[in-house]
């Protein structure tokens, strides 16, 4: 019953970076000392406009019950995220097909040193209440989200901005301890300046070349003045600047949004109304989409994936494609038994990724050849090399040499349909290593995460990662840097940290990406996590939809929808 | 009679307090931190977790938490979910839907079950009796989710007679098939219970007397036999309403009915004590009131029973 919301789905934002790289290289020789235009203002890319024109059509899209009020800085999960992203548009948006970032509200984003960014806003953008979108709308929203007493989930996205530490006080003994976090020193980040209505100047604490790409994540969305005046009223009736405006919500049942006709973006949606309908189970949603009772479903249930049933049930109206996500098994490196990199490499080579893909996923996933998902800007092919291929003999030799005692164990929460492939992985590990491998299920995702957060895992555990923003950086820093926000296994390698720091400060995206890739190669040798497969999305839609494109964050691109 | 009802109603108070406390304690004792799973594979920021814990008073002793909850409840405030929705609103949306579903199920099981039971009870051993025997055995053996998925797939997907899921308005017409699914198991029990009861009472003295008086057979069965045979069936049906409401979770999941089953399921998963307790408390009250109603009906049906 829970397939829709549990599991590997940390964050599912939007998609994009090649635009960024291209424009950088073009302008780099133009002006060595002058500011470098990071993002061109053109839209370009695929899927710009739908050609269907503006219609009165109403469509229904599946969702899960949002876990937080519909405030962009506090929404990091899928169900609320897709609604928030229909209501808000950030400075940057990501291309549907390529995940490349391009300017949305921003007219230009310029910097000379990747440390001080000058962001100019396009004129004519308004919130749904008619007030203009100004530099202050962004500055206030970011300050609000970053200010720790406001307790927003998206606060960590502003870590790079100068003065973040002053507004975000750390709890000295964590959330579980008796001590409370002190009152932050300041209410606003010193690096954030709204110079005038259309100019926002952002100073980072240290150079960070990926910053402009980050800006498309929903935590960076602007908030109208009305939010700060009355938060309860805003939560009941969110006011954004996106292509759709909020109409109504029935908790547990549906959220309805309607096209905002004064939307200033280059692309306009052709449908008038979108109803996000809450489904408790993906099976029920699937039955509805097959019988044209629901217009779009982005989670085909396992029962319909089996034997590729959905390709016959939804002939001509389904899609299967990769998105920016990876599924891996991470080691609790704080546990002495897993501190040997050779052991971790052996387990990686003992997993027959192709066999699992064929038997469990019908060949719909892509076996992982590195830590970075396909289409992520900056990704290099086959970074993992032989270590991510099935090498039973080498794996066994390596494994036996480590002197690992006891059975090999893998663990995961059992409420999200991960049991089958974890068990299959165990079978291939057992047969390759000649040592028993058992799958240890944890009943709920909550218990599973509690143990991970507390650093109490005793066996390699499932980890899923979906990009927040399209950059190789997002697959490295949070996961493999010492103290990274999602580095739960406690992995630490000073050489990797140094490379990542150099990559962050790189003068250009290309140079940065090359360094991130170098760091990735180092991480591969340490194998703190075994990359298993890249995520793919299977989606289906009703006969009524002529066009429905899924973006690189496995969400329906509402702009692309055309109704017959 | 009035005093009896009053006494029973007063008994509700301790039962109410006891059940709420037990449920609250059980949810509290569930393993896992409710905020550990809220931010996906990236742990939630400490500031967020601390603020939420403080807002919902989770750092307090469980008894203090419970007393706060009870205090708010007595003032009509069911509290709010971790996502900031008033639990009262959720309950107000979900309860009527589940109640409608349970009533539809109850009507279907009563109608079909009683009819089958009476017919087979009067003519036991015949073709019809064997048919009902086999059918009820089958219904008892097949789990609800199988019946549900089969009917949804056949009637909804392949034949297109019904919509595979129920809309958020959940009108009575839409609930016929889910109601049948939900009530199918109890329907089998009702049929068998009625059959046994009727078959037993057919040989009772008062039936023989009625027949000897020269009463029309329809009157013998309809008034004398049925009224007395109905007691165990009424007991079953009465308590079944509560069971149907609380046990609708599978049916609700299959047909995407926005009732209390899904609400409780989600709340248990996210450790939302306020939601679980609020919903279950109302279920307990339904149970208690139905039991009371059944007891009162005994006296109506069987003149030998006196309540006071």
Descriptive labels:
heterodimer; A: about 575 residues; alpha+beta; five-stranded antiparallel sheet; globular; B: about 300 residues; mainly alpha; 12 helices; about 75% helix
The major beta sheet of chain A can be summarized as: 5 strands, antiparallel
Q: Quick check: average pLDDT of chain B?
A: 86
Unreliable runs of chain A: 1-51
> Strand content of the residues of chain B, in percent?
under 5%
Q: Let me know the number of strands of chain B.
A: 0
Q: What is the structural class of chain B?
A: mainly alpha
Low-pLDDT residue spans of chain B: none
General shape of chain A:
globular
Distance between the termini of chain A: 32 Å
Instruction: Spell the H/E element sequence of chain B.
Output: HHHHHHHHHHHH
Strand order of the largest sheet of chain A: 1-5-6-8-7
- Note the beta-strand portion of chain A: 15-25%
Largest sheet of chain B: none
Content-based structural category of chain A: alpha+beta
Structure description:
The complex is a heterodimer of chains A (564) and B (308). Chain A is 28% helix and 20% strand. In chain A, the strands form six sheets. In chain A, strands 1-5-6-8-7 form a five-stranded antiparallel beta sheet. Chain A is globular and about 70 Å long. With 564 residues, chain A is α+β, with helices and mostly antiparallel strands. Helix content of chain B is 74%, strand content 0%. Chain B is built from twelve helices and no strands. Chain B has helices spanning 2-29, 46-55, 62-74, 87-122, 127-141, 144-158, 176-201, 205-212, 217-246, 249-255, 260-269, 273-301. In chain B, helix 1 runs antiparallel to helix 12 (273-301). The termini of chain B are close together.
Structure, briefly:
The complex is a heterodimer of chains A (564) and B (308). By secondary structure, chain A is an alpha+beta fold. Chain A has 18 helices and 20 strands.
Compile the SSE list and pairings.
The complex is a heterodimer of chains A (564) and B (308).
Chain A: H1 18-28, E1 36-39, E2 58-63, H2 78-87, E3 92-94, E4 101-103, E5 106-111, E6 116-121, H3 135-146, H4 164-167, E7 192-196, E8 199-203, H5 211-214, H6 225-229, H7 231-236, E9 244-250, E10 254-259, E11 273-278, H8 282-290, E12 296-297, H9 302-305, H10 309-313, E13 318-330, H11 341-350, H12 353-361, E14 366-367, H13 392-402, E15 408-413, H14 419-433, E16 437-442, H15 445-453, E17 461-466, H16 477-480, H17 494-504, H18 509-526, E18 529-541, E19 545-547, E20 562-563
Parallel strand pairs in A: 2-11, 15-16
Antiparallel strand pairs in A: 1-5, 3-4, 5-6, 6-8, 7-8, 9-10, 10-11, 12-18, 13-17, 13-18, 14-18, 19-20
Helix pairs in contact in A: 11-13, 12-14, 13-14, 17-18
Chain B: H1 2-29, H2 46-55, H3 62-74, H4 87-122, H5 127-141, H6 144-158, H7 176-201, H8 205-212, H9 217-246, H10 249-255, H11 260-269, H12 273-301
Helix pairs in contact in B: 1-3, 1-12, 4-7, 4-9, 5-7, 6-7, 6-10, 7-9, 8-9, 9-12, 10-11, 11-12
């Amino acid at each position: 019953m829970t397939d829709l919301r549990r599991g590997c789905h940390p964050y599912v934002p939007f998609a994009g970076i090649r635009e960024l790289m291209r424009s950088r290289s073009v302008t780099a020789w133009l002006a060595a000392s002058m500011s470098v235009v990071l993002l061109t203002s053109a839209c370009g890319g695929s899927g710009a406009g739908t050609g269907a024109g503006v219609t009165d059509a109403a469509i229904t899209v599946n969702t899960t019950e949002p876990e937080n009020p519909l405030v962009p800085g506090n929404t990091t999960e899928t169900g609320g995220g897709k609604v928030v992203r229909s209501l808000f548009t950030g400075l940057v948006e990501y291309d549907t097909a390529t995940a490349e970032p391009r300017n949305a509200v921003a007219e230009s984003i310029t910097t000379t040193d990747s440390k001080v960014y000058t962001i100019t806003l396009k004129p004519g953008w308004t919130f749904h209440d008619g007030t203009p979108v100004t530099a202050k709308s962004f500055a206030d929203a970011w300050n609000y989200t970053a200010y720790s007493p406001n307790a927003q989930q998206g606060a960590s996205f502003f870590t790079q901005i100068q003065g973040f530490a002053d507004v975000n006080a750390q709890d000295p003994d964590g959330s579980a301890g008796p001590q409370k976090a002190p009152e932050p020193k300041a209410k606003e980040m010193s690096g954030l300046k709204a110079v005038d209505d259309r100019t926002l100047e952002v100073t980072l604490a240290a150079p960070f070349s990926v910053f402009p790409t980050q800006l498309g994540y929903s935590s960076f969305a602007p908030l109208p003045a009305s939010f700060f005046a009355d938060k309860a009223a805003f939560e009941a009736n969110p006011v954004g600047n996106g292509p759709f405006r909020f109409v109504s919500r029935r908790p547990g049942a549906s959220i309805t949004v309607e096209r905002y006709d004064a939307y200033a973006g280059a692309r306009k949606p052709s449908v008038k109304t979108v109803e996000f309908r809450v489904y408790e189970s993906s099976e029920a949603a699937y039955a509805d989409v097959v019988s044209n009772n629901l217009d779009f479903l982005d989670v085909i249930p396992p029962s319909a994936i089996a034997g590729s049933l959905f390709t016959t049930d939804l002939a001509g109206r389904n899609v299967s494609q990769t998105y920016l996500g990876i599924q891996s098994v991470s080691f609790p490196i704080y546990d002495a038994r897993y501190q040997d990199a050779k052991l971790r490499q052996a387990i990686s080579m003992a997993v027959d990724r192709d066999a699992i893909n064929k038997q469990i996923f019908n060949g719909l996933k892509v076996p992982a050849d590195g830590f970075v998902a396909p289409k992520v800007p900056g990704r290099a092919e086959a970074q993992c090399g032989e270590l991510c291929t099935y090498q039973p003999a080498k794996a066994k030799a390596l494994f036996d040499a480590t002197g690992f005692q006891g059975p090999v164990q893998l663990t995961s929460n059992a409420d999200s349909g991960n049991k089958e492939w974890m068990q299959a992985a165990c079978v291939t590990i057992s047969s390759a290593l000649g040592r028993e491998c058992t799958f240890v299920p944890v009943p709920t995702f909550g218990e599973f995460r509690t143990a991970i957060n507390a650093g109490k895992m005793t066996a390699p555990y499932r980890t899923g990662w979906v990009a927040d923003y399209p950059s190789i950086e997002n697959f490295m820093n949070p996961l493999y840097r010492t103290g990274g926000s999602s580095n739960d296994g406690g992995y630490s390698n000073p050489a990797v940290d140094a490379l990542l720091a150099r990559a962050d400060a790189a003068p250009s995206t290309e140079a940065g990406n090359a360094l991130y890739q170098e760091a990735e190669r180092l991480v591969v040798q340490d194998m703190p996590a075994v990359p298993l497969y890249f995520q793919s999305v299977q989606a289906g839609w009703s006969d009524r939809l002529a066009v429905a494109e899924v973006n690189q964050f496995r969400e329906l691109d509402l702009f692309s929808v055309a109704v017959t | 009679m009035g005093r009896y009802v009053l006494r029973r109603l007063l008994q509700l108070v301790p039962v109410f307090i006891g059940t709420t406390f037990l449920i609250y304690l059980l949810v509290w004792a569930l393993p896992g931190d409710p905020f550990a799973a809220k931010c996906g594979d990236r742990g939630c920021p400490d500031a967020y977790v601390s603020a939420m814990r403080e807002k919902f008073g989770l750092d307090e002793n469980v008894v203090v938490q419970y007393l706060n909850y009870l205090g708010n409840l007595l003032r009509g405030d069911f509290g709010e979910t971790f996502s900031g929705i008033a639990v009262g609103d959720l309950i107000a949306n979900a309860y009527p839907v589940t109640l409608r579903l349970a009533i539809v199920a109850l009507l279907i099981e009563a109608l079909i079950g009683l009819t089958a039971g009476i017919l087979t009870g009067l003519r036991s051993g015949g073709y019809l009796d064997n048919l009902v025997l086999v059918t009820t055995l089958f219904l008892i053996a097949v789990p609800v989710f199988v019946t549900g998925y089969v009917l949804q797939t056949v009637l909804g997907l392949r034949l297109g007679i019904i919509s595979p899921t129920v809309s958020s308005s959940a009108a009575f017409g839409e609930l016929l098939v889910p109601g049948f699914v939900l009530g199918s198991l109890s329907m089998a029990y009702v049929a068998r219970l009625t059959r046994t009861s009727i078959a037993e009472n057919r040989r009772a003295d008062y039936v023989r007397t009625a027949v000897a008086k020269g009463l029309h057979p329809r009157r013998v069965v309809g008034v004398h036999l049925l009224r007395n045979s109905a007691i165990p069936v009424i007991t079953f049906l009465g308590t079944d309403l509560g069971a149907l409401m609380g046990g609708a979770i599978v049916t609700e999941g299959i047909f995407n009915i926005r009732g209390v089953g899904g609400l409780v399921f989600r709340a248990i998963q996210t450790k939302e004590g306020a939601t679980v307790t609020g919903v279950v408390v109302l279920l307990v009250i339904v149970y208690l009131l139905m039991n009371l109603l059944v007891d009162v009906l005994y006296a109506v049906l069987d003149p030998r029973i006196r309540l006071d």
